[in-house]
Predict the 3D structure of the following.
Amino acid sequence: MRTTSGDFRSRLRIPPPPINDLILAVVLTAASFLFILLAGPEILGGAVRSPDWLNLSLAALTTLPVALRRRWPFVVLVLTGLPEALAAALGYNAGLGAAGALVLLYTVAAYRGLALSLAAAAVCSVGYVTGVLLASRPMSWMDHVVTAVLIVLCWVVGRSVRLRRAYLAELTQRADRLERAREADTRAARAEERSRIARELHDVVAHHVSVMTVQASAARRMLDTDPGVARDALTAIEEMGRTAMAEMRSIVGVLRTDGPAEREPQPGMHDLPTLVEQMREAGLSIQLWIEGETPVLPPGVDLAAYRLVQEALTNSLRHAGPAARAWVTVRQEPGELMVHVEDDGRGAAAELVKNGAGSGHGLVGIRERVALYGGVLRIGPRDGGGFEVRARFPLKDRT
């Protein structure tokens, strides 16, 4: 119960006004007192009552509340108009209550919305008209013009400050949004680079390890009967391992550089004869046809087509069987590159795709590469038995 009452009192507690507003209110009140005590009828241009404690109290009520101008500016503006009107009705000198009202008008215009600032301007205008009607001396037209100009000027300056503050806040928010967008783009670029490196690593490791496994199996079988063949197979494994390490070192080296990485040339379609020869040494019978002129491909399409052939031949080596044959056809047509890899094996790869087990990183990587460049891909059983991978890459006119 004590805790609840303490929380209630803390919510009712009003924080102290800022020190600069408090100083402004005290200075304005002191100047108002001096003006009341020193200004006589010859200065005011009319008969006024002699200052007394009531006069000073009413003057203080029109200026001291300025200290609360940032918390309740409009409410304070309305409330300070009452003692000022009462002082004018009693024939007292209201002091600098009008200056306090202008300060409050500026505050409302600078820290509140348009509707409330217009209402504050109307309150000041009504307060001035009321003071004129209750004043003991007539007002000249110059007094009216000066007062109107001051009211409009305070309102315009306050609105300008508010609009400028809003503009600066919008610029800050826009800069924050641009910074967040730049960070998001950076994260997306890093994620894309990691995905690219993962695909490259998978293709390199899957191909070379599959070939090395086949060569090791052949070396094991021929070790006792034909050591020369086993020696050749082990030599091929050694060379394949060195090649795999060199490619992996080139790919992973991108991750070890803070600045732009200097990438070594990636393999492309011009390396197909070397790839086919490696697969033949591993025991897969392959025929390669390149129809049409040797295409000058964009680097991305060149690498994607090469990796597609590499992955397809690796799957044929692993799943097609020892007596299988494979055919690789590369044909450049007007505005299109066609890559076709097929084998006449026992169809184990086709069964993997049919049963859903072939949806691993290899086939997913092929689909991603082909889709990245707007190509069309078909993976599945081949008519007459076996398995095929067929892709078409669109080529832009490079004239």
Summary: Residues 143 and 149 are 10 Å apart (CA to CA). Residues 258-262, 352-359 have pLDDT under 50 and may be disordered.
